[in-house]
Amino acid sequence: LSGLDPAQPYFQGTPIEVRLDKTDAEFVDVIHTDTAPTIPYLGFGMSPAIGHLDFYPNGGVEMPGCSKNAISQIVDLDGIWEGSRDFVACNHLRSYKYYSDSIIYQDGFLGYSCASYDVFESGLCFPCPAEGCPNMGHYADKFKGKTSNDFVKLYLNTGEAKDFPLWRYKVTVTLSGKHKVTGYVNIALYGSGGNTKQHQVAKGTLKPDNTYTSYIDAEVNVGTVTKVKFLWNNNAVNPTLPTIGAATVVVQSGEDR
């Protein structure tokens, strides 16, 4: 039984006979996308974990792409009717759109078990454990029976628009060069499953021999990495023409560690 952002008003905090609960089926998975308090933030979705697996994409409160201005939201590619509806309840309705995408992407929407979204963003819950990570949505039941905890909260990030799934990687870069510079470093991954756009992994003072780590949510499942593109920019005209490079780049996939 899959709960798509179960309703908060009149249901949150009520007895289990009234609302969705893990006792309602052998396996209950829940996608939370609109958990802000109804008053005063007009959140429509329930915030507590109530299933066997509870997924909180993007933290469960504000979904990427839902803060577009009213005109661009209403006159949307999906049409005026869907655009108008999304303007009123965009976060709430993301739950079914994620579920719909999850049917197509069997390897997508990996949820990382974590204490909170902030801890997930820090990278402390990366990579997936030995038994793997469950997939949010249609294939969540592949994880049935693999967890012994009463409630499991799972976190992940999604894209702003269809297609929504993202794949998480840890990228560690050790710099080479002779002098420190100020600027940013971008990394793009190339692999058997496709190529990513550039993702920023460091910004500010860049020092040779220092190591910088970042977690990137890629728009494709790269598969086996075949090439890494390293780019840097110092954001300024510098007459000394400083150069900096990558001594090593280490890429770790969250899925298979």
UniProtKB/TrEMBL annotation:
Domain of life according to the entry: Eukaryota
Domain PLAT per the UniProt entry, residue ranges: 167-257
PANTHER family named in the record: LIPASE, PANCREATIC LIPASE-RELATED PROTEIN 2
E.C. code: 3.1.1.26
Membrane topology per record: Peripheral membrane protein
Top EC category: hydrolase
Keyword Lipid metabolism: yes
Protein name listed in UniProt: Pancreatic lipase-related protein 2
Taxonomic placement: Eukaryota, Metazoa, Chordata, Craniata, Vertebrata
Biological process (GO), any one: lipid catabolic process
Primary location recorded for the protein, binned into one broad class: other
GO CC annotation, single: neuron projection
Pathway(s) annotated for this protein in UniProt: Glycerolipid metabolism; triacylglycerol degradation; Glycolipid metabolism
